[in-house]
Design goal:
The chain has 152 residues and is mainly alpha-helical. The protein is built from 5 helices and 3 strands, in the order H-E-H-H-E-E-H-H. It has one domain (8-59, 95-150). The chain has helices at 8-28, 58-79, 86-91, 122-132, 143-150; strands at 52-56, 99-102, 112-116. It has a 3-stranded antiparallel β-sheet with strand order 2-1-3. It is elongated. Bound molecules: zinc ion. The site of zinc ion has 8 residues, from strand 2. The site of zinc ion (ZN) has 8 residues, from strand 2.
């Protein structure tokens, strides 16, 4: 019986190759300001010589609404009214974070990858944002905070 050889790393590599092709098409469609991405671990600028990726845990993002609903139900049962406390908002479930890493420091977890090779522009980021908005799990990530920090 053949074994399932579709490992997490193989899926990640396929996803990354798809996004690299997509990014190349988008960058080729126009010119805008380049964006500098650096690995959050080693602080190296990502480029064609030191590629990396933006990544996020889709599993963690998908878990967020369930975690929040469970906490909401727990507090509502506890207090007899629909409520969350101020500490629930700060210490409870949080939106899933986006990260930038070079290939060497990429986590081996099941994540969503967008390849970065130093050719990314503001237009690329805008088109990427439009693409990500089509994903069910995207609303439970901290993309807006990521954009604010990236565009500083
Ligand atoms: Zn690194």
């Amino acid at each position: 019986m053949p074994q399932n050889r579709d490992t997490s790393a193989a899926r990640a590599a396929r996803t990354r190759a798809k996004h690299e092709r997509w990014a190349a098409e988008m960058v080729g469609a126009g010119v805008s300001m380049p964006i500098i991405f650096t690995c959050s671990i080693c602080k190296t600028r990502l480029s064609a010589l030191r590629a990396g990726a933006l990544h996020v845990s889709v599993d963690k993002a998908m878990a967020y609404p369930g975690q929040l609903a469970a906490l909401y139900a727990e507090r509502s049962a506890e207090y007899g009214i629909p409520v969350l406390s101020a500490s629930d908002l700060t210490d409870g479930p949080q939106l899933t974070g986006w990260h930038v890493r070079c290939d060497e420091h990429m986590p081996e977890t099941d994540t969503y990858w967008i390849g970065i090779d130093g050719s990314e522009t503001e237009k690329w980021l805008l088109l990427l944002t439009a693409h990500l908005c089509e994903k069910e799990w995207f609303q439970w990530t901290d993309w807006s905070q990521f954009l604010y920090s990236t565009m500083k």
